[in-house]
User: Fold these one by one.
Assistant:
Number 1:
Amino acid sequence: MKEVLSQAKKMAEHAEIFQISSKVTPVHFEANLLKQIQSKENVSTALRLIKNGRVGFAQANGFIEPKTLAEMAAETCEFGMPAKFDFPKPKVYPKIETFDSQIDNVTIEDMVKLGEQLIASIRQHTPDIICEVSATKGIISVDIINSEGGEASYSKSFFNLSLEGVLIKDEDMLFVGDSHSSCHPLLDFTPIAEEVIKQLELAKRNVSIETKQMPVIFTPHGVASSLIAPLVSAFNGKLVLDGASPLKNKLGEQVFDKKFSLWDDATIPYQVASYPSDDEGVPSQRIPLVDNGVVSHFFYDLQTAALANTQSTGNGSRHGGLPTPSPSSLVIGKGNISFRDMVRDIKEGLVVELLIGAEQGNILNGDFSGNVLLGYKVEKGEITGRVKDTMVSGNVYQILKQIEAIGEETRWVEGFLSTPCLYCTGLSVTTKMR
Amino acid sequence: MRDRIVNSLQGHAADYIEIRLEETRITRIVYRGDRLEEVGRTSSLGGNVRALVKGGWGFVSFNNINKLLDKVDLAIRQAGLTAKEDFKLSQTEPVIDIVANEKSEPMNTPLASKKQLLDEYNDIILTTPKIRTSSIGYYDSQRKITFANSEGSCIEQTKADINLRLTAIASQDGQVQQVGLSIGSPGDFSAIKGLQEQVKQMAQRAVELISAPQAKGGEYTVVLDPVLAGVFVHEAFGHLSEADHVYENKRLQEIMVMGRRFGDKSLNIVDGAAVPGLRGSYKYDDEGVPATKTYLIREGTLESRLHSRETAAKMGEKTTGNARAISYLYPPIVRMTNTYIEPGTLSFKEIISDIKEGIYAKDWYGGTTSLEMFTFSASEAYMIRNGKIAELLRPVVLSGNVFVTLDNIDAIGNDLQMNQGGGCGKGGQSPLPVANGSPHIRIRRCLIGGS
């Protein structure tokens, strides 16, 4: 890295090197049986330059001559955007635990056993189910240095266990699943087994539903698959800056229900989306995005923050190119109503566990519309069975403006979202006529 | 290099071993509004080893291409841990070949020319009255892949890909509407030139959407344009025909039995990398199997499915050359290539003339499938009233059940067009270059989400 920096300094006034190396071991089960064991090692080095006030960028995966990388980046400076920011000077980073050395002690045999136990416990409940399971462990190291003397470095361990099951009866397919992630090794399969068995129990019977407006309870998976994509785009500082977010000019305003609070939090110990430094050397923070219904912050990287006359929130994240604002972990505040009581309150409604295709609508406007891959009908306060051939449509700003109730328990889904159940009203449910 | 790979494959205790090395160069240009956000280059060097022992796979990927033998040993050890029972891959003739890409233009076109073209499109969007902002993502890549296996194949292929996505965003009174356009080509830069008129119309439509009503949710007779019908055939049927979903699943095999009727006699669905000149075209797949053109559905009935060497062997069917990996970081899996509905005889006018009330849906935002249920979304939609195109609607999301919807196609147009934009995602490997296509089609009783 030092060599890349010294080559880069010969060609440009300012330079920054971001290096990430990873070693990941996934173990895959297909159709209930162990199928493939992988080992993946990857190193990538990204160079960002500021030359004559313009930003240049190049990245190399695998080995590259430092001089070649510097030349590639320098060539793009001529066309690059004007730099409105400086690379961070040396900073003090918060101490955030993201590494558990126990991950090294987990053997492939342990992971195989974990997968076998998980599949066996699901099949004991439902012998005909076909499961795909992945157990993955990994370690990544991030190093950042820049020409202003800034330096950031940390390691992260992670472990993920996930299951997707399909149960086919005639031409009816039922999909169930769950996954858990942590920086600690996860060697207990029972939370996933219990969740999946609960889904199988609730979906035992197919029931019909009518086309009309009705209340919907989004479970944590339901929240992740229905409501999160529009919210993430609306709080992205870049979309706010462009005027492509409906929340532009809404800072400090009551846009959501008073019960609704949302944070971006990169500081939670041992969460896989946590980090002490973002991908451009800015210390991480916990940022309130919605505080009791009031829009309180957007999330930014360095360049976007500078263009918007504000500070980076430590949300600069790289996806194979230059840093761009992205959430770390999102946390929705919990309420005080149990799932049971929410269901009891509904005369006719729907529980959405998983919506597919919801992010294909006009998410900029907050619209979502998707097919209920897993969802249950509620009649007179009881879950009566699973619905099929049904779509749910709504607008996040309308449905989160007045939330009927927020659940008292939260859980992590997809490794980056901690949320309770949300009980909302006024959703459009559309179904096939029989 | 070639000798080193071939030598590393000799004399191991595995049923099958393959090595793949890959060199990639990528250029990326991103605009948001009038800001050119990113001009960047990426260069990648890496490879992988895949080994098969008694039906179990080991896979090792790496950037450091030294010590290839150690990686082969590791892959074999991992495969040994997953070994189950004797198994042989489907037989194919070993191939020795070098395939050059005749269109290596993305690398030869100067950055300044690429930027000039994108500047022009961006100006057209941003100077359209009431447009708030734009978003443009341009990407081109050139890959050189060297593949060799323990059966004596050794293939060098060079592939190029270009992908452009333009989006116009209009906003007024807290309402935000967007319309996008996706274009791609297997390396031919001129494919993304000359879009000025299309870009202008796209921006104007984004503005019109602000005042357009939303469709009322329900079942409709819908007519899909060739672009959206291409996404439909990819999502609604293409994924289900990928044999890796079926080969270990007895129940699904009973449902997907050859000869089963899926649609009307006029319905023919094809996938094939051997169809030349498209983003999903190639000579050999990532297991070194020659590309084919495969009829998935012929005259309404299931005729074949897409295979890797493993799925073909397990199901006792012929290989089709559909094993693809997005990069050296992943093992090849069964994927689509160029997927399309063959043209019928009807004109667009004939297709819509007897529809009293329906929806005409055009162009795509996206699509996804669970195999049984699928959704796909149009970025442009109109009501059809009394056989004529009527008012503009907000974008619609369509959904259906594959076992019912294909049979509800009751009219197929004569105007096949291939769509080269976007890409396909599966098993964490996205976006893979593919092409989809279709003529205009009409579907009865299609579910549309809405107010």
Note: Chain B touches chain A through 81 residues (CB under 8 Å).
Number 2:
Amino acid sequence: MIGNLDHAILQQLWWLIASVVGSLFLFLTFVQGGQTLIFTLAGSEEEKTLIINTMGRKWELTFTTLVLFGGAMFAAFPLFYATSFGGAYWVWMLILFTFIIQAVSYEYRKKPDNVLGARTYEIFMAINGSVGLILIGAAVGTFFTGSRFSLNLYNSVTWATPYHGLEAALNPFNLAFGLFLVFLARTLGAMYIVNHVAHEHLVKQARKAAWINLLWALPFLLIILISLITMDGFAVNPATGEVFMEKGKYLNNLLGMPAVLVMLLGGLGSVIYGVAATGFLGKNSGIWFGGIGTVLVGLAIFSLAGYHNTAFYPSVSDLQSSLTIHNASSSKYTLTVMSYVALAVPVVLAYVAYVWRLMDAKKLTLAEITGEDVKEIY
Amino acid sequence: MGEHILTTVDWARAQFALTAMYHWIFVPLTLGLSFLIAFFETIYVKTGNEEWRKLTRFWMTLFGINFAIGVATGIILEFQFGTNWSNYSWMVGDIFGAPLAIEGIFAFFLEATFFAVMFFGWQRVSKGFHLFSTWMVAVGSNLSAVWILVANGWMQFPTGMAFNPDKARFEMQNFWEVALSPVAVHKFTHTTSSAFVLASLFVLGVSALFLLQERHQKMAKRSMVVAAAFGFVASVFVGLTGDEAAFNVAHHQPMKLAAMEGLYVGQVKAPIVAMGIINASKKPGDDLPAFYQETKIPGLLSLLANRDPNSFVPGINDLVFGNAERNIVGAEQRMITGKIALAELAHYKYARETGNETEAASALALFDQYKGDLGYGYLNSPAEAAPPVATTFYSFHIMVVLGTLFPLIFLLVLYFAFKGSLEYQRWLNLLCFFSIFLGYVAQQAGWVVAEVGRQPWAIQGLLPVGMASTNIAASNVQTTFFIFLTLFTALLLAEIRIMMQQIKIGPEA
């Protein structure tokens, strides 16, 4: 059945799959958010250790989702992979550095003789949760603000600035995107702590942190939304493939794809409800509303960038070099093969959900991290 | 332009080699130790003996310390394809990306999901589910090796694809040819079995240290018996798959095989150099001797390459300059046809761009005729087609010598364990301890043979590394090289210190 699908349909399908993976990653950045909370939320060493161990049981899932997002983009849209990673070199390299130091920090922090000391590994975690997310936000922001590159006849990329991506982090829209992600992650992190930790004082603090961080996220969210509905965008003529600037392109996309508008508003509403339920109604399930809302908002953002005849990775220095889901994709054969492989994704999601439920059935307590299992404590 | 690109390429190669070599310090231990831990835990679940549980958790702690940095260096490798090798990423993304995505879906999630259960689930899940999770981590870790090695195998032997001149890239035509190519299959089996050997040596070495220190003797001996048995079986497999891998090299990368043996002039009854000091100054086509000193075993290379001790094995000179008698077209000739292919590709692209379809069709016909030599068109001299011979030769021989030593060590351990006198064999315990280091040397040497021996190609015969890199100033890649060097070294030192401390604490803490 998949073999009979049109190449254009497969390209759209794979943009959707990549968007789902990217959006799930955004939800899972509650780990990064939690990492930044250790300095602001924890009132004692024990509380700090509780937060780190809560996040430590999920860090690898977030990391793997990021790797899968990279792999999916490489496989489905290799021209994006080649253009963005090779061009916006420094943004991606700095993101990578923050993830290297995160990966070892959990495992090394509490181990005796760890050379750098526990505090250094905690700072590494905070860098990953702040700088890492700001840069990821800046990279996603370029889907709307564009980058300065050109492609030759052989699709070899030349970047027009010597800063190789660092310029993207200074763009106000991209920066707002990055800061929004940081505060959203902190909000989600606080809600996850409420959901997973049994510690009265810490949970009380986390409930407060959830709505305070949402308040911090709101101005950046407003900048993003107002910019999106007022900015000119990178449109594609479906008949010729020509890229041109269109006034109010992303507003037109929202109005032209009502489902996306519903996802965006529904997603934001769900996050706000999750925070209200956590912060003011005393519920522990806010993370699920926050999570579902984040995934919906992520899907809406990726849809705005890639669908409705839009260039998802635009070039501001050479419009016709801009990437669309059609000119940047893999061949029909490869997308077909990968679509068969993607049929396994629900199975993967099912066992991830099963194990998550099993492991989170009991809340994490101080007793557990100070008891006999001390060998496996972060 | 040439010099600028070369400098960038040099740094990009250095950075990739650095990351890959660091990555391969941690990964083989993960691949093998995950199975050994699964064996230990299975015995615990079967017997209910608490000592096996302690043993399992001790090795699991060392596994976790090692695993984290393996994950960290792994993500760098994936993204470096894009950051440092963007032309390569575009040209092969249609083929290379799919195994990477499959790896993520099937292997990484298995590993990541059950890793948490394996470490933190002792009191949260049943004994049976915990054991299942430990096995899933082992399976997931090793599955993750399948797909990246399929991708690497494809670079050594590109198959199941065609070049698309409109897109200027290679496109997959047959997934099964890519996934099940003999090079990919043997690369996986050889690499993973050698990883099992390394992990077995690690367990032997650490346990031997306990015996030397007269600590945790019972647990140490138990660990050694399981590791030696696993290591011996894996060693036999390493030998068998190594032979198959060499056979594939002979047929798909004859230049690499010639470099592995320092064979400049092809011959029948070609020998293997059992021991030799190679002349590193020798270049293809000159009259200098290939070796200062050598001890040869006649016919063995022919047997290895063609399953016939009397057969002909081409040398570096044959492959560079051609050998009409043996019907071998050399790099010299292939450069001429490769340059025609490149010119016709440019001609085709220009004709399409200007709308001249007739001219485009005739350019495409000529391109199709010569496209098999496309990569050679980028070379500046025929001698560039040969890899660094001395590095390839020594790495290959070091790997083979060590690969022969390891099964003997495993057998000795099993023998003395059976006799009940393992703790009294101080010399053997010392040998076991130092074999950890030798195991890592063999691992690194193996990859040097595979990757240095493949030069100058990123994709065998089709894309030289010089054309694969990103168009970026060398200073950027140079800077990140030193950042990675500093970071990886600091983290490696931290890992070694932490591991040593955990070993000092021991399994019974």
Note: Residues 200-230 of chain A form the longest helix (31 residues).
